[in-house]
Amino acid sequence: MELRHLRYFVTVASELHFGRAANKLHISQPPLSMQIRDLEREVGVELLYRTKRSVSLTQAGSAFFDEAKDILRRVNHAKLSAQQAARGEIGDLTIGFISVADYNLLPYVLREFQKEYPSVSLGLREATTDTQLTDLRNGVIDIGFLLPPVNAEGVKSFLIAKEKLVAVLPANHPQAKAKRAISIKSLASSSFIMTPRQHAPGLYDSIIRFCEKFKVYPHIAQEAIQMQTIVSLVSAEMGVSLIPESIQKLQRTGVVYKAIKETTPTIEIHLAWKESNELPSLNRFLEFTKNSMKTYVKD
């Protein structure tokens, strides 16, 4: 039994007329009648009552009709699903992201991507840059929103966002009440809270180089992996920190965000993926994110 037998039978059963069914199927009537006979022999029962004037379904034919329609529907659905999967419109993607991305482009990209491709299931994993690079190589995640440098073998990336640094100070810090941007030199005697270098060497080195350029040599009193934790430690008066400006969206009692007078380094966020990953949904997400960069407006 082939799918064409089911299609022929369903068309005849729907029309209850061999001539009209043959026209719909773009074949002549005699071959259609032969195909239905072949189907009945294979099923082992009569599916249609035939007279010179009419065609009707037998009880067995009625049961077979319902099942045949369902099979054809599922075959068509399978065909559509395969085509959508090949285009990256359905499937599963696991996305890693650093906490900075959560206050930048990431929410916008996820929201708009899900609107356009609701059949792609997105799994999210917050992780540091070094962890994401390992996870990309090992196939744990498909995509990573992370900080450069991206120097892992077999991993590619492109820039998706960049921003300046701002200072986050305890509310009782002498510079907290300043009405204008503050100088990095005014923080020379403050204790600093930093992300550990092994988790984000690009960010760490940029901050240290910037401070030293202006003869500020940070005393690192505390380290924390997540930006939210850094802000919390500042709130607890454990020190000051320099953070990407988008983190200002995180409102926390006891902290004050201040622009810095000197030109700060630009902190970049990259989108990274394993070059050998051939998931169509991955390519769809990469293309979508590139286009989203053109329309994204910071809050």
Brief sketch in words of this structure:
This protein has 299 residues and is an alpha/beta fold. It has 9 helices and 12 strands.
As laid out across the biggest beta sheet, the strand order is 4-3-5-12-6
Largest sheet: 5 strands, mixed
What is the CATH first-level class name of the largest domain? Alpha Beta
Mean pLDDT: 91
**What is the CATH homology-level superfamily of the largest domain?**
Periplasmic binding protein-like II
- Tally of individual helices: 9
The ordered H/E elements are HHHEEHEHEHEEEEHEHEEEH
Number of strands: 12
Strand content: 15-25%
Count the domains.
Answer: 3
Shape: rod-shaped
At CATH level 2, the architecture of the largest domain is 3-Layer(aba) Sandwich
Give the terminus-to-terminus CA distance.
61 Å
**Structural class estimated from helices and strands:** alpha/beta
CATH topology of the largest domain: D-Maltodextrin-Binding Protein, domain 2
Radius of gyration: 32 Å
Please estimate the helix content. 40-55%
Describe this structure in words.
It is built from 9 helices and 12 strands. Helix 1 crosses helix 2 (18-25), helix 1 (3-15) packs across helix 4 and helix 5 (106-116) packs across helix 9. By secondary structure, it is α/β, with parallel strands linked by helices. The chain has a 5-stranded mixed beta sheet with strand order 4-3-5-12-6, with helices on both faces.
